[in-house]
UniProtKB/TrEMBL annotation:
Keywords from the named record: Signal
UniProt key word Signal: yes
Extent of the signal sequence: 1-22
Protein name stated in the entry: DUF3617 family protein
Amino acid sequence: MRRWALLLALGLPLMGSMDADAQTRQGPPHDWTFGSWTGGIFPAGETEGGACLGNPTVIFTRDIVMRASVVDTAYRERTIETVAQTPNGLEFRFTAAAPVLGPMGPRAAPDAGFGCAGGPNVLRVERKGPDELAFPGCSEFPSSLKRCTTSGK
């Protein structure tokens, strides 16, 4: 009887650790967006190889979203403050954009945001498919975006 009690006393903590291992660790809610995307400003063109990867419209990383600028060669970087899941996608909230110095003093960059109804510090992303998304309500991105892929994918 003592052996059974000893086995039971030693076995219960092990069973608890099995449950903890069964839980999978999740990444950030926006990990499905990571990578380079083309389209948005214009309908998406080539999505494979160097033609797409060499000139993406939007790039999502863990902490930053970069977008191509129509008026400048540099990408506009927006630092992610929070990301929330929505029923059909995500809502990004960004930290306030750094002002641009001009002849009349500092002002917000004209293309600091995405032209969305929520203002320059909000971006709503709608998932259209595994490699397609859209920015609903964003006047600067009327077309959907498609993921840039390598030819082996």
